[in-house]
UniProtKB/TrEMBL annotation:
It holds the Pfam family DUF1918. Residues 44-65 are annotated as: Disordered. Residues 56-65 have a biased composition (Basic and acidic residues). It comes from the Bacteria. Residues 1-57 form the DUF1918 domain. This is DUF1918 domain-containing protein.
């Protein structure tokens, strides 16, 4: 998995009725876009994340930021 600053990570809900969790990558800490990432949730909380197999990268285009 490779991401860059501004991309979004989408972690899908694990059970029926659980919503997806979306965070924005604010810093890439691994080499060449690899995890771990510093991410920010919609409520402003920041944490370090190493995404698992249930997570997708939503690559944002420059005009969508």
């Amino acid at each position: 998995m490779r991401a860059k600053k501004g991309d979004r990570l989408v972690q899908h809900g694990r059970v029926v009725g659980q919503h997806d969790h979306v965070v924005e990558v604010v810093e890439v800490l691994g080499p060449e876009g690899n995890p771990p990432y510093r991410v920010r949730a919609e409520n402003g909380h920041e944490t370090i994340m190493s995404p698992g197999p249930d997570c997708l990268v939503d690559h944002r285009k420059e005009d969508q930021r």
